[in-house]
Design goal:
By secondary structure, this protein is of the alpha/beta class. The chain is built from eleven helices and 17 strands. Strands 1, 11, 12, 13, 14, 15, 16 and 17 form an eight-stranded mixed sheet that branches. Strands 2-3-4-5-6-8-9-10 form an eight-stranded parallel β-barrel, surrounded by five helices.
Length: 383
């Protein structure tokens, strides 16, 4: 079954562009609010790196989520979109001084710290401003996730976080710094995780750390990582938030005074977005035929970078199905969206939708080959 799109409005726009279905987004956010509210001490932050389109950010902010940022630019985007600075968390393994100062100037909720040198710099910069910064330590739990190697972040071999064996030492250092307030622990094991067992493993590791070290903290941050159904965006437009939050409620042993924080990105925006492209040419090869689009890896890099799958639909054709290699115009052999893809018969000018592209689509676009960045439009605008 194909998605439903305002084709007549699409014909008025220059392709390629991103289209965001705001009903899907709002329904997703409503589900998040409902399921998280079952547990009074759950706080959800949106991972801005997934999609920083201002119109998308505004809808997310309207629904009461905080913001998880990994750069100074994302902090600025969150503030511009109206996120309360007291609900902004700043993570990232390489925070520049100006980015830390930006967070300090806005009195953001917390810095998720990933090394002792970073801790020392935050303390030094906070002292210069006469401020005390809230910090949580990102602990590398050495928990593997059933996902692509490039988006696994919780193993000892990854660049992220502080090792478990160093945790006590780092906490001692922080508690002796006058311009820091140690408030919590932060974890994140990866992205596009659909096996709840991975989150159970994380819960078990957090339980072990809290019980063995007798740490008293106010906040536990378990990151995000919940995946989406790339194969069936129409059948499952909203991820299984019920099972996700229930998993943590059942397996993570929170203390009565603790708040559990989540940093969901892909699960919030992934299914609401599609990349809309136009067919430039249909090329007959020796053993196959190619549908050559005006969108390429500069507009949606995930297939080239991660070998990621996106459902591809010809939304302007009901012709009999044929198999095509769907490719872009970029001068790279990796500029391929999919091989042997069954599409309704393709001709020049047809509109092609690459589904489930709301996360890590528009935000990762580049100007390689001197191409213009794709625009983003919402269904609210195209009524």
């Amino acid at each position: 079954m194909k998605g439903t799109f305002p084709i007549h409005k699409f014909r008025e726009l220059r392709t390629p562009f991103y289209y965001y279905d705001t009903k899907v987004l709002r329904d997703t956010l409503s589900c998040i609010r409902t399921e998280a509210a079952r547990y009074g001490n759950y706080s959800v932050h949106y991972a801005v790196k997934a999609n920083a389109n201002p119109k998308v950010l505004a809808i997310i902010r309207e629904n009461g989520l905080g913001a998880d940022c990994v750069s100074g630019g994302e902090i600025r985007a969150a503030i511009k979109a109206g996120f309360p600075t007291g609900k902004i968390v700043f993570a990232g393994v390489g925070k520049a001084d100006w980015e830390i100062n930006l967070g300090l100037d806005y009195d953001i909720f917390c810095f998720n710290v990933e090394s002792v040198p970073e801790l020392e710099i935050i303390n030094e910069l906070a002292a210069a401003k006469g401020k005390v910064a809230n910090v949580a330590f990102r602990i590398n739990p050495n928990v593997g996730a059933h996902t692509h190697a490039n988006i696994t972040t919780g193993l000892a071999e990854n660049k992220f976080g502080i090792s478990m064996q160093d945790m006590d030492h780092v906490i001692d250092i922080a508690q002796n710094m006058k311009n820091l307030r140690f408030i919590g622990l932060h974890f994140h094991i990866g992205s596009q995780i659909l096996d709840m067992g991975d989150f159970v493993a994380l819960c078990n590791r957090v339980n072990e750390l809290q019980e063995a070290r007798h740490i008293r903290i106010e906040h536990v941050n378990v990151g995000g990582g919940l995946g989406i159904d790339y194969g069936h965006p129409n059948r499952q437009p909203i991820p299984d938030f019920k099972s996700y939050f229930e998993t943590y409620n059942s397996h993570l042993k929170l203390r009565p005074h603790q708040t559990l924080h989540f940093e969901l990105g892909r699960a919030v925006v992934g299914q609401c977005g599609s990349l809309i492209s136009q067919v430039l040419y249909v090329k007959q090869g020796t053993n196959k035929q190619f549908a050559i689009l005006d969108a390429g890896m500069t507009d949606l890099i995930r297939p080239a970078l991660y070998q990621a799958f996106h459902k591809i639909e010809n939304i302007t054709s009901d012709a009999p199905v044929q198999a095509y290699d769907v490719v872009g115009p970029i001068c790279e052999s990796s500029d391929v969206f999919g091989k042997a893809i069954d599409l309704n018969g393709v001709k020049r000018g047809d509109l092609i939708a690459l589904r489930s592209a709301g996360a890590y689509g528009e935000i990762m676009a580049s100007g390689y080959n001197c191409r213009e960045l794709p625009q983003g439009y919402t269904s609210d605008e195209l009524v």
